[in-house]
Design a protein that fits this description.
It is a single chain. It contains nine helices and twelve strands. It has about 325 residues and is of the alpha/beta class. The strands form three sheets. Strands 2-1-3-11-4-12 form a six-stranded mixed beta sheet. A four-stranded mixed beta sheet has the order 7-8-6-9, with helices on both faces.
Length: about 325
């Protein structure tokens, strides 16, 4: 028999043996995870994830065009990461329409859901009670600070006239609109702010974030005043800013005036819901997480435009 025929028969025999082994035998193998140092793993890759559905309007912090500004991806990504740590399970957060969310809550595919009170009222009217309310969200309020570099000669709003000014993103409700309104209310007209030559002649000076505007004010050349986010300022240490680390201390700035508070554009206040099929232990841990008042929770919720959660109202 030619060598080629022998090779073909050998391959066929191997395939038959494999088929018989997998089809005729009752022996089953479980998946394993390579863990040569016997380290404790947070969760296994084949575990079913905890699924959370959300409904939003793709505006404000949920506008995908803004998601790269803080380098965290989607605004719910910090929440997902922290819940994986709390639950010791993989977590998926899914962007859904209201009717999809209702169906998946009823089927038990979703363990939790988060959406506005108006959507909740609409959902109950059409689908009835689809879960248990665990907590109610609270929307953050943002405020801008008109600041000058601490060692500059700008000591009042009036000193801003004729100077360059570091705004946040073009059209930002706080770092542009509210800042302009605060300047006008203090007697400085928009046309009295020095315009830029580059990159667009006769335009305002825009920055992609509060941090970039702060860097321009403290470490830049030729711009000694601007607007920064009050929440960012509160996170700065009292002193210790660094040019190389692009960090700031409160003593780098002189606060001239505060803008009006503006409610964050996010999912309107509403319920965080648990499906009737959700694991009671998972529900308990999620409630504890939502109602905690730690600095870490504050940062996680702030990424979604929220100041936190409160217990649900009881009738």
């Amino acid at each position: 028999m030619p060598d080629k025929s022998i090779r073909v028969l050998g391959i066929l025999g191997l395939l038959v043996a494999v088929a018989c082994f997998s089809g005729c035998s009752e022996v089953r193998f479980s998946s394993t995870v390579l863990n040569p140092f016997n380290m404790q793993l947070p969760f296994l890759p084949y575990q079913q994830p905890i699924r959370i559905g959300i409904v939003h309007r793709s505006a404000g912090v949920f506008d995908p065009t803004t998601w790269d500004q803080k380098g965290m991806g989607s605004p719910w990504n910090p929440l997902r990461i922290e819940l994986e740590r709390v639950l010791n399970k993989p977590v998926q957060i899914e962007d859904l329409k209201l009717f999809q969310l209702a169906a998946h809550l009823q089927s038990g595919r979703l363990d939790f859901a988060f959406f506005s009170a108006d959507d909740y009222t609409e959902l109950k009217k059409e689908f009835g009670q689809v879960g248990k309310v665990l907590a109610i969200s609270k929307v953050s309020k943002r405020q801008g600070l008109i600041v000058a570099r601490a060692d500059s000669d700008v000591r009042s709003i009036e000193d801003i006239r004729g100077r360059r000014f570091a705004f946040g993103p073009r059209g930002d409700r706080v770092l542009f609109d509210a800042a302009l309104a605060a300047l006008e209310a203090s007697g400085v007209k928009p046309e009295e702010i020095k315009k830029e030559i580059l990159p667009i002649p006769n335009s305002y000076q825009y920055h992609i974030s509060s941090a970039e505007a702060a860097f321009e004010v403290v470490y830049g050349l030729g711009t000694e005043v601007g607007v920064i986010d009050a929440a960012d300022y509160e996170e700065y240490p009292d002193s210790g800013g660094s040019f190389l680390l692009r960090s700031f201390g409160k003593d780098n700035f002189r606060i001239l005036v505060r803008t009006k508070e503006i409610s964050e554009e996010t999912i309107a206040e509403g319920p965080f819901l648990a499906s009737a099929e959700a694991d009671p232990e998972d529900v308990k841990r999620v409630v504890e997480f939502l109602l905690a008042r730690t600095a870490k929770q504050k940062r996680v919720f702030a990424a979604m435009g929220l100041s936190g959660f409160q217990p649900p109202h009881r009738d």
